[in-house]
From TrEMBL:
This is Uncharacterized protein. It comes from the Bacteria. It comes from Vreelandella lionensis.
Length: 208
């Protein structure tokens, strides 16, 4: 079994475990508050929050009127992951995880990335949500910062059929990714946090 197949196996196990824990109740339409939005060519960066849930986003929402692609940096870890959503003409009848399918990413002529995509809907919402899992997110992010076009190859949302191809400009992606990550890191590293509690000499030595 090659590395990607092992990765797929682990992802599917985790996905099924999530379904069992959430009982399909984890999918809820939520409106996040946005702050500090800044444009970077075809991309933009911003902060999003809902209660204690905070993350920082680099997003391309300009190339398609019905498809949005983003790289998100959760506030607690700042580890990037890829998401997206597609607008459809009719509202979803149910809140559900539709399926997990293979997906492929390619920046310019760099090697192809194999991935998985999880499709989901929220009842009454005209949006299909995508969440991607990649074996090497760091490599994809680095290529996005250097490349010109990101291409996606996706299976149809509801089952096998003609593959769907998406092309996204990477103009401004470097600035958006760098800013979103910097905002996340800065949020984690407030100088005042280091003076909230007393530390022993041995602990203080670790900072020098």
């Amino acid at each position: 079994m090659n590395i990607f197949k092992i990765f797929v196996f682990i992802f599917v196990l985790n996905f099924l475990s999530t379904l069992d824990v959430l009982g399909f109740k984890g999918l809820e339409a939520a409106i996040y508050n946005s702050y500090m939005s800044q444009d970077h060519g075809r991309w933009s960066s911003l902060k999003l929050s809902l209660g204690d849930d905070v993350f920082y986003r680099a997003v391309n929402s300009t190339d398609y009127s019905d498809f949005v692609f983003s790289v998100d940096f959760p506030g607690e870890s700042c580890s990037p992951h890829v998401e997206g959503h597609f607008s459809q003409s009719t509202s979803a009848e149910t809140t559900e995880y539709i399926r997990v399918a293979p997906a492929f990413f390619r920046v310019d002529r760099y090697p192809v990335h194999e991935a998985l995509v999880e499709y989901s809907t929220v009842r009454g919402d005209k949006t299909v949500y995508f969440e991607f899992a990649l074996a090497d997110m760091a490599r994809l992010e680095n290529e996005m910062k250097q490349g010109n076009v990101l291409r996606l190859k996706l299976e149809p949302i509801y089952g096998p059929g003609n593959d769907v191809f998406v092309e996204l400009s990477l103009v401004g992606s470097r600035a958006a990714l760098d800013r979103a990550y910097a905002l996340c890191i800065n949020n984690q590293s407030n100088p005042q946090d280091f003076f909230q509690e007393e530390v022993t000499p041995s602990e203080a030595e670790e900072y020098f």
